[in-house]
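Running this now, will post back.
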Amino acid sequence: MSYTRVMVFEQPLSWAVGIKRFKVNTKPLLDRHKKEKTLKSYSLVQADDHTGLLVMEFDNKSKMNKFLKTMAAHRNEEAAETGLQWWIYHGPVKASG
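Update: finished.
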């Protein structure tokens, strides 16, 4: 059963500045996890000029937990530097039909 994790975030920086930071600081880490097959996929979506969603999909809960342990320090560092706030929702995705 796969797991999906949605991070809703809000930051004082504009989307343009935030996406530049994302490409330099966060995207390489996400791509590394994807290459290691810890992370199945991810998608970044702009909701407003200062808000967005980062949707991540994992094959199972153990891979999600492994990912979270390695990314927590990075997420907290970004929040401290930028004033980023986030809300996270996650859970299993069950196939229907």
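The chain has a mean pLDDT of 93. More later if anyone needs it.
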